[in-house]
Write a sequence for this structure.
C-alpha cells in the first residue's frame, strides 16, 4: 500500500519558470514532511521540510505548500535553473511514538531547459 | 569524514552469494537507517538503529537480510543467498537525535548491488 503518492513522474520546465511537484498522503499519523533532492549517483539530500501545523514554508527559491484537510503538499521551485535538474522525492515521517522511518514518494524527475 | 560513508560503492554478486555492505555514519549520530532504492523508485525503509539497538526491522524483506551495529557506530547490512530481486541501491542514513525530537537524516551515496 503506497502511503505517499507523488506526481508528476517527470517534469520539463524552461529556465526561469516555476516547477510544481505534488504529493498526497493517506495516513493522518504523519507529523513531518520533508522534500529530498537526488542527483544521479548520489544519495538524497534534504531540501526543505514542513510540519502540519504550518500551511507554507519558504526557503530561497523553494516553497512548500501544505493543505492538511486535503492531505496534500507541494513543492514549488521559483526561477528554476538548469542546476535544479534532479529527481525530487517527497516523504512523510510517522508521528512521535513511532521509530521515525521516512516513507517516500516514487519521485519526480525534473529537467530544466536552458 | 564529514558525511555518511558507504562501501563498497558498487558490488556485483553471483546469485546465491552472500554480501556485506558497510555504513560509516556521521560521528556521534545516534540514529542509523538503512533503505533500499530500486531503479526509478523512491527509497524504502529497511531497518533502524538507535545506537547499537535495532529498534525497527519491519522493512527487511526476508530473513536473508540481516543488519547489525554492534558498537553503536559502523553498521553492516548483510544479505545471504542473494537473488536477482535484491539488485538495488542500498542507502544508509544517520541522524543526530532520536525519540521525540525529529531532525533530518543525512544520506550516504549508497551501494549499488547487482546480482547476476
Amino acid at each position: 500500500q503506497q502511503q505517499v503518492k507523488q506526481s508528476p513522474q517527470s517534469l520539463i520546465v524552461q529556465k526561469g519558470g516555476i516547477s510544481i511537484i505534488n504529493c498526497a498522503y493517506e495516513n493522518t499519523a504523519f507529523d513531518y514532511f520533508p522534500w529530498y533532492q537526488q542527483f544521479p549517483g548520489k544519495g538524497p539530500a534534504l531540501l526543505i521540510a514542513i510540519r502540519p501545523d504550518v500551511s507554507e514554508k519558504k526557503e530561497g527559491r523553494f516553497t512548500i505548500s501544505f493543505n492538511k484537510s486535503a492531505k496534500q503538499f507541494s513543492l514549488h521551485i521559483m526561477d528554476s535553473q538548469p542546476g535544479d535538474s534532479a529527481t525530487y522525492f517527497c516523504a512523510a515521517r510517522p508521528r512521535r511514538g513511532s521509530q521515525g522511518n521516512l516513507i517516500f514518494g516514487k519521485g519526480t524527475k525534473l529537467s530544466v531547459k536552458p | 569524514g564529514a558525511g555518511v560513508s558507504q562501501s563498497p560503492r558498487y558490488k556485483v554478486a553471483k546469485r546465491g552469494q552472500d554480501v556485506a555492505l558497510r555504513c560509516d555514519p556521521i560521528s556521534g549520530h545516534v540514529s542509523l537507517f538503512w533503505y533500499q532504492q530500486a531503479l526509478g523508485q523512491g527509497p524504502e525503509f529497511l531497518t533502524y538503529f538507535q545506537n547499537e539497538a535495532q529498534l525497527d526491522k519491519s522493512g527487511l524483506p526476508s530473513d536473508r537480510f540481516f543488519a547489525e551495529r554492534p558498537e553503536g557506530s559502523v553498521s553492516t547490512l548483510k544479505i545471504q543467498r542473494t537473488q536477482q530481486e535484491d539488485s538495488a541501491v542500498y542507502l544508509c542514513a544517520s541522524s543526530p537525535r532520536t525519540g521525540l525530537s525529529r531532525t533530518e537524516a543525512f544520506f550516504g551515496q549508497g551501494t549499488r548491488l547487482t546480482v547476476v
Observations:
- Chain A has a mean pLDDT of 91.
- The first strand of chain A starts at residue 4 and ends at 7.
